[in-house]
Q: What sequence folds into this?
């Protein structure tokens, strides 16, 4: 596990999962929303984003959290040796988007650029939630089915599976550390 792509629908806890995975593994974390958007939610030029994305991909170790754009998504998934697909039921994603919206008035959401407009961004999240569920999630599912023969794939479909994933990662990291001593 050296190159990890964390992906899935909006509001699935990808940023929280990625941050914790970074803490467990020590792999450097790159949050695409913070690369693709400046403070205040202003989008950077596409070429600047794509260049920054490519610079990350050529490094030896990374966790990349998020979607970015369609062009960089599939390249990232192909480059990764480990795929973590957060595929919770649609109502869970919807509830977590709502919860993030409410909490966002008091504390900026995890993984969002500084001073992002919470109302506009949250309303956009509901639109993205539906579009991703309808068009992209089926493609993700097919992709990971094919990728299982060449990559480590974690298809997380419930909060229980997310907890089990972390337990497994902590055990693996602990075992690797004890084997080094």
A:
């Amino acid at each position: 596990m050296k190159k990890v792509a964390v992906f899935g629908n909006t509001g699935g806890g990808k940023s929280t999962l990625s941050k914790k995975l970074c803490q467990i593994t020590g792999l450097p974390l790159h949050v695409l929303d913070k690369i693709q958007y400046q403070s205040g939610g202003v989008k950077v030029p596409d070429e600047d984003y794509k260049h920054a994305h490519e610079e990350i991909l050529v490094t030896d170790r990374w966790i990349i959290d998020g979607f970015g754009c369609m062009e960089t998504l599939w390249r990232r998934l192909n480059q990764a040796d480990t795929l973590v697909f957060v595929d919770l039921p649609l109502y869970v994603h919807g509830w977590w988007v709502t919860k993030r919206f409410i909490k966002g008035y008091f504390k900026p959401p995890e993984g969002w650029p500084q001073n992002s407009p919470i109302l506009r961004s949250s309303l956009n999240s509901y639109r993205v939630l539906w579009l991703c569920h309808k068009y992209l999630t089926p493609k993700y599912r097919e992709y990971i089915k094919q990728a299982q023969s060449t990559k480590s794939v974690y298809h997380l479909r419930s909060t229980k599976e997310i907890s089990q994933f972390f337990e497994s990662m902590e055990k693996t990291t602990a075992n690797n550390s004890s084997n080094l001593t």
